[in-house]
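Reviewers asked in the last cycle whether our approach scales beyond single polypeptides. To address this, we selected a multi-component target totalling 325 residues and predicted its structure end to end. The input consisted of the following lines:
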Amino acid sequence: MKKRIKYGLFLLLSLVCICFLLKYLIFDREMKETQEIQTYKAFHANQLLLESNHKNLNLESLIEKAIEIEGEIKEIVYKHHKYSLLIKGNENKFYILCEMQADQNSKISKLKPGENVKLKGILKGFLMDIILLNCIILDKEIYE
Amino acid sequence: MNKLLSLVTFIICFGFTVEHKEFIERQGQVTFFSYTSVENIQATNNQVLSLFNPTTSEIAVSILMRAFVFKKSLMHEHFNESYIESDLYPKATFNGSIIDFDPDQKETQTRIIKGDFTLKDRTKPIEIKAKITRTDIGYTIEGSLDVLIDDYSINVPSLLSPNISKKIEVSFNFNYAPYEE
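The resulting structure, written as structure tokens, was:
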């Protein structure tokens, strides 16, 4: 009889543990960091802006994918407690707007407008500019 | 010759004193909250585009739905795939104008913005109470509104309905700068 109770308690505890583990794995999963996501495609900023503007590139197929871009910094913005880099192409009308991941703040302080930078971020779509979130800086040579 | 000289002088003077007609906010902030006894959900979008013309009081807003940032990835997934269907309806828009707006008033003005809000291809007329302040370079507009999910055909599965409020609280904050075309 005692053995049965012990077995029952063990089973109940195991079930509770599994439930908590499932809740953690499925429901409480935090957003992935960009470092953990594989790059889908790499572009030069000008190429991305030009091709998307002329509809040569189907941007929809890249949405929610990690892409790399290389280009000149037009502006560094600190707004809503977050840094963003505005990357320019040859045209000065539309830009690539990269909202930076929070762990990149120390690297951003070493950047200046006019410098070239290589970034990786998650493409979210476009309004006036092409929008990337959770961007990280890839150009390690500057910082090492 | 004198006429030509006056015309040139007028153009030069006018060119230097002319005010910007349009103002732009490339990175406006929109936050929404859903409060229920089961779960509180909050998401923020810092990449909202808005154009504002103080002369005509017209305001246009475009929100990229996928740019809302959630704390948990499952919330982000449900929001984009089930509720908003961001693949089909990637943007929400607002077009309207501020009632009785005075572009020259330096003190903060509390005004009603009337316009049409479109989400998931459903357009509804809305009125928003907002505070408008003149800054050194432009204007700031901030306010909040309630959005009823039934108005925009947002379908929540019955299993998850206790987690999502029927009334979503939306707040916004835009800082406009002159739009250089």
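Residues 21-178 of chain B form a domain with the Lipocalin fold (CATH 2.40.128.110). We regard this as preliminary and will revisit it once experimental data from Aim 1 are available.
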